[in-house]
Amino acid sequence: MRTRRKTNKDGNAKTKRQRPFWVSFLVVLTLAGMLFVSITYRSFSAVTAEVRENEQLNSMIQNLTDENLQLQDEIHSLKTDPKVIEREAKRLGIAVKDLGAKTQVPVPAK
User: Fold this and answer.
1) Residue pLDDT, tens place only, 48-73
2) Alpha carbons 28 and 48: distance in angstroms, whole number
3) In the 8-state DSSP scheme, what is residue 101?
4) Contact status, residue 8 vs residue 14, Cβ threshold 8 Å
5) Under DSSP, is residue 15 helix (H, G, I), strand (E, B) or coil?
6) What span, in angstroms and rounded, lies between the C-alpha atoms of 110 and 88?
7) Residues 91, 98 contacting (CB under 8 angstroms)
8) Which of 109, 81, 82 is nearest to 96 (CA)?
9) Which end of the chain, N or C, is surrounded by fewer C-beta atoms within 10 Å?
10) CA–CA dist 5, 70 (Å, integer)
């Protein structure tokens, strides 16, 4: 290590140590590394949260699409299948003797 000798007012030699250059460089490099790791971890956490939210939203979209298809099938069967129409009329309390292809049943509005 380098040492520099100085004399004080009394004339006595006083030694002062200097830090080696590599210690300062190591401190700067360590701080830069810690900053890099913290920024990278924060970005990784944000991306992970976004991916998780995207998966949840895709799952919800799939569930709603399936439900929509089921409702479309139910609407189609209610429009075309006399047995389904008769079953729903009974469920609503509408007396139906014979539903022909052209018979229309009035449905009370709520």
Assistant:
1) 999 999 999 999 999 999 999 999 99
2) 30
3) S
4) yes
5) strand
6) 16
7) no
8) 82
9) C
10) 91
